[in-house]
UniProtKB/TrEMBL annotation:
Catalyzed reaction equations: ATP + protein L-histidine = ADP + protein N-phospho-L-histidine
PANTHER family: PEROXIDE STRESS-ACTIVATED HISTIDINE KINASE MAK3, SENSOR HISTIDINE KINASE
GO CC annotation terms, alphabetical: plasma membrane
MF (Gene Ontology): ATP binding; phosphorelay sensor kinase activity
Protein name: histidine kinase
Length: 755
């Protein structure tokens, strides 16, 4: 037989003693002993606190019972902590099964405590309403109303004497005014005033009525029962007199509450005060005192009721804590048997969610739901592992096909857009974003008609007839930079169901312009060949007719000469026009040399100044250079054409009236400057003419497109052809904020020389 070590307080509070206590609390027998002891303490506590036994001679009994209860509850809580702390640590670490463990313990506690709480609540309510029979609200209300009624008598008594004071004061002053009309002063006749006070006191049931001077504190006149017996009360205190003189009535209760007095100002000249006194019924005062005593006793008993209820609540709390502790201890024992297998399943499921499909849980031979769940879980992971291998293989093949498709689409110069059945953007290639000048990758999921409104009509057509492939030429872009797209759209059909759409398009603007230019060049060659040959004989014949027959015509020689000159002049105009056609049709190849661009511009401007004296030319040219590699003759021709267009645009301005009222042409101005950047050199020609037309702006550089009344439309076409041969461009823009045109020739910098 082993020796049990002695347990002292110092040993208990040492570290070794604490470890010994915790190990002891882990034993089931210790927990059962604590539960039994707690049941006994609950009964003892009820007996002591409810007064079932008299311990009046032992004042230490009640504190001792409470201390023992606290100690037992502390031991129960420690026992719960010993079993719950490991679970709490695992719960904080997030280990599998700990949440279920905690929920099971909580469930046992709720199942055990809920009925106790319900029964306790009903018992508390029953106990509460039982006490309310004696301490009901109706009794409390009746007592309070009786007290208020008795106090209301005094208040009513004060209100009545206030009214009598005002009434009596008004009566005396009315009598004073009537007697003053006949030459008598009532306030100076003390005997008459005393008689009036005596009669008014008798009529109004007053015991005393007197008039005094507040300055000298001297009684002027008195009436009533007290004055007849020769016994007068003291005059009111100065505070009451001061209050009465401020147009108010001062009410004074005697210390024994047997009488009540009222003070009011009677007159200001001379200063006199009126005091009246009335007795209070002694039986009413006795009744009020008895009522106050009953109410005080009732409140004292009501306070004791709260103490009884508190005792009952303390007993209920002890029972509830005991039941909760027992339920928690039982829950800890049963939770291990239920939560451990489920915790292993939870841990395995987490590993599956992380991608480990080869995990297995231990299987037992038990024939219950948890064992069946473990076996089913293992079969599921095996199937998932097999299916994932197949899916990864299929995904690899699909991914290879997708990369191949994307590579093909990215290498195609035409724009390709895949649309879903709602015509939302799904798969655009890079060329589509470039051609539409918008980032279609960021617009994935957006309706194509919203992003590119020009396609809306074509998309409506394919929606109505999905079995047809539609091809359209669509104009897109701003009026100054409009482009033509050749668009083709078809539907992806599975049977009769539309699953999506595929749209392809390409920019054919340059192709159309090249086709039109080639066609016009062919036309120009034909015109030059067919028309130029007969022009010379016509001109020579007209000149010969004029020289030979002008002297022989006597009827109207001037008309004959004028007609002959007109034929010669018009033939010359047609000849120059044919020369322009021939020049456009046979544009020579440029001979590239290093040329000084500023010198070329100055030479051209000399000719333009001589041809157009009415126009002011402003130059902004570098002093030296710049040097570019170009064909001097062709660049000069391009610049001459631009300056001629500026002169024509200025000539088209409407005439204005001067100071004398005559219409004159507006002053024309042309600005020429050369701007050099890192990789380009620009020749900028600006004028204050009529500006660019609103329509067909993007076609101004095409052959035979002009907005002038007299023009072939070949000037800008020749300029564009020259710039293309030099690898440059021509831009036409409106002057910023003013009327006029800005034409810019942009040449690439291929070689840089000094002057």
């Amino acid at each position: 037989m082993t020796n049990t070590p002695r347990l002292s307080f110092s040993h208990l509070f040492s570290r070794a003693g604490l470890q010994w206590l915790l190990r002891a609390l882990e034993r089931r027998s210790v927990a059962v002993t604590l539960v039994a002891l707690a049941l006994c303490l609950v009964f003892a506590t009820f007996v002591v606190l409810s007064g079932g036994m008299s311990f009046g001679h032992y004042a230490v009994v009640e504190p001792l019972v409470l201390v023992v209860n606290g100690l037992v509850l502390l031991l129960l809580l420690l026992a719960m902590g010993v079993r719950g702390w490991p679970i709490l640590v695992e719960y904080r670490k997030g280990l599998a099964g700990t949440r279920l463990h905690v929920r099971l313990v909580t469930l046992f506690g709720i199942v055990a405590v809920a009925p106790t709480v319900v029964v306790g609540v009903f018992a508390t309510l029953f106990f509460h309403y039982g006490i309310q029979i004696w301490f009901s609200d109706r009794v409390n209300t009746a007592l309070n109303e009786a007290l208020q009624a008795s106090r209301g008598y005094l208040q009513e008594h004060n209100a009545n004497i206030r009214t009598d004071a005002f009434s009596m004061s008004n009566y005396i002053m009315s009598a004073q005014n009537e007697l003053a009309a006949s030459g008598m002063e009532l306030l100076q006749d003390h005997d008459a005033l005393s008689q009036m006070l005596d009669s008014q006191a008798t009529i109004r049931g007053l015991t005393e009525a007197l008039v005094y001077d507040p300055i000298t504190n001297r009684v002027v006149a008195a009436g009533g029962l007290m004055s007849r017996t020769g016994y007068l009360q003291d005059l009111p205190p100065p505070a009451a007199t001061l209050m009465a003189r401020s147009n108010d009535v001062a009410i004074l209760d005697s210390p024994d509450e047997r009488t009540v007095r009222a003070v009011v100002e009677l007159s200001q000249t001379p200063t006199l005060m009126l005091v009246i006194t009335r007795l209070v019924d002694p039986s009413i005062l006795d009744h009020m005192h008895r009522t106050e005593k009953v109410v005080a006793d009732y409140k004292h008993l009501n306070r004791n009721k709260a103490k009884i209820q508190l005792t009952f609540v303390m007993i209920f709390v002890l029972v509830a804590l005991l039941v909760l502790a027992v339920a928690a201890l039982i829950g800890f024992a049963l939770a291990n048997q239920i939560a451990r297998p489920l915790g292993l399943l939870s841990m395995a499921a987490r590993r599956v969610s992380e991608g480990d499909l080869r995990v297995h849980v231990p299987e037992t031979d038990r024939d219950d739901e948890v064992a069946s769940l473990s076996r089913a879980f293992n079969r599921m992971t095996e199937e998932l592992d097999s299916q994932r291998s197949e899916l990864m293989l299929a995904y690899g093949q699909i991914n290879e096909r997708r990369r191949f498709t994307e590579a093909v689409l990215s290498g195609v110069s035409a724009g390709v857009i895949g649309l879903d059945v709602e015509q939302r953007i799904e798969l655009p290639n890079r060329a589509a974003s470039v051609l539409l000048q918008t980032n279609l990758a960021d617009a994935t999921g957006e309706r194509l008609a919203t992003r590119v409104p020009e396609f809306a009509g074509l998309l409506e057509e394919i929606t109505l007839s999905p079995e047809t492939v539609f091809t359209r030429e669509i104009q897109i872009g701003h009026a100054t930079s409009q482009r033509t797209l050749l668009v083709r759209v078809g539907a992806e059909l599975r049977g009769t169901v539309t699953e999506g759409y595929v749209m392809t398009f390409d920019d054919i603007t340059a192709l159309q312009q090249a086709q039109r230019k080639a066609a016009w060049a062919d036309v120009a060659r034909r015109i030059a060949h067919e028309i130029k040959n007969p022009l010379t004989p016509i001109q020579l014949a007209a000149e010969r007719l004029k020289r030979r027959f002008l002297k022989e015509i006597t009827s109207d020689p001037d008309t004959f000469a004028q007609c002959a000159d007109t034929i010669v002049r018009q033939v010359g105009d047609i000849g120059r026009m044919v020369d322009e056609f021939s020049a456009f049709a046979r544009m020579p190849q440029p001979v590239m040399k290093d040329e000084n661009l500023s010198r070329i511009a100055q030479e051209v401007l000399i000719l333009q100044r001589n041809a157009h004296h009415e126009i002011s030319y402003h130059l902004d040219l570098p002093q030296h250079g710049p040097w570019v590699r170009c064909d001097r003759r062709l660049i000069s021709q391009a610049l001459i054409n631009l300056l001629q267009n500026s002169a024509d645009a200025i000539a088209m301005l409407p005439r204005q009236a001067d100071a004398s009222g005559q219409e004159v042409a507006p002053k024309g101005e042309v600005w020429v400057r050369i701007a050099q950047e890192e990789e380009t050199i620009a020749i900028v020609v600006a004028d204050n003419g009529v500006g660019l037309p609103e329509d067909d702006r993007n076609r101004l550089a095409e052959p035979y497109v002009t907005h002038k009344a007299k023009g072939t439309g070949l000037g800008l076409a020749i300029v564009k052809k020259i710039m293309e041969d030099h690898g440059g461009t021509v831009r036409l823009e409106d002057r910023a904020g003013e009327k006029g045109t800005v034409a810019t020739l942009v040449l690439p910098v291929k070689d840089d020389h000094g002057a």
